[in-house]
Amino acid sequence: MTRFYLLTMLFTCICISVNALEIINTNGISKEYDNAGLYKHERQELKTSREKDGVVRLNNWQGFRFDVWLKEQDLGQFSNIRFESEDKYLVTLSSEEFQAMESWIVVAQDEKDFEGNSLRLIFPSLREMQWVRDLSRVVLENFKALPYPSKFMLMKPFLDSQNLLNEPKPFVNTEGWYFSEFLPQLSESKEHQVVFYSRDGLKQNLNYPYHLEGAVLEKTKEDTYNLKSPQIPGGMWLRDIVYLQCDGTALIEQSSLNSLIALHKLLGWDSNPGLSFSIHKADEVLQLGFADALAEPQVFEGALFFELK
Q1: Which H, E and C letters describe 50-93, residue by residue?
Q2: Residue 49 and residue 51: Cα distance in Å, rounded?
Q3: Measured between alpha carbons, how far is 164 from 175 in angstroms, rounded to an integer?
Q4: Rounded distance, CA 309 to CA 300, Å?
Q5: Fewest beta carbons within 10 Å, which of 8, 146, 195, 300?
Q6: How far is C-alpha 159 from the geometric centre of its chain's CA atoms?
Q7: Are 49 and 27 in contact (CB under 8 A)?
Q8: Model confidence pTM above 0.85
Q9: Angle (CA) 83 212 119, round 5°
Q10: Are strands 276-280 and 151-154 parallel, antiparallel or unpaired?
């Protein structure tokens, strides 16, 4: 009887933990809101229209304004807000972006409640890829600019020097490199903050090993690079990566050096009018102004690494 009681209590605790929305404020203090209680919140109607493959989908949802509700919780000011699903899907917005639009917690579609008291986060003005199913965690962060890379290396020469694997497990029909093998060459830390930037301007900020254990940087037949990770949903696998920063070291595609202009603003780097490149080659170090070097990307050919100062 005692054993059965303990197992029952353990199961109950697990269920409570899973069926609760955790919100962590900027001081790291966590508070849980029971999903069943959120289902009892006064509901409003939300209609959305989405187009996919030329077909317009109209949906009716029931829920409540999350941005209004969050403000009522008086959790303090924040600079960034991160949303996480139970399967580690992530969406991050700045405070300005979040406050400039509506966000909704929906608990039903067409008057039918979701199974298991799950929560869905919807931004009516954003694409569906930035909506979050099975919302489980919201993290409020004070903005911390990512470290300015102390060293940049060209992506292709660096990866060509690594051991390219055929069908690295658990992936099939794939060639690539395990992050566990090449990240230690970029940073000596046991845990890494890894930033990705794609050719089409998408940014992703992930942690190793939490999001990237067993992950692979895939090399395609077109010599582009994609992320594949068993730790996060396939919908978060960024494609055509042209910039990868691990802590204070960055890899960048030579053909995308101009993306450094956008990355300065996107990653919160300090910039100054006199910014210049120091390009280290085997037999010389070239000093060039920022604009001059970007206008002649061939000067980076054969670079061991380069710095921005």
Answers
A1: EEECCEEEEEEEEEEEHHHHHHHCCCCCCCEEEEEECCCCEEEE
A2: 7
A3: 7
A4: 16
A5: 8
A6: 22
A7: no
A8: no
A9: 25
A10: unpaired
What domains are defined for the chain? Answer: 2-141 (3.90.420.10), 151-271 (no CATH)
What's the sign of the alpha-carbon dihedral 91, 203, 186, 224?
positive
CA 162 to chain centre: 25
More confident residue, 178 or 14: 178
pLDDT of residue 4: 45
Instruction: Categorise residue 246: left if φ over 0, alpha if ψ from -120 to 50, beta otherwise.
Output: beta
Mean pLDDT of 137-155: 84
Strands 55-65 and 192-198: unpaired
First vs last C-alpha separation in the chain: 70
Report the distance separating Cα 238 and Cα 56, nearest Å. Answer: 26
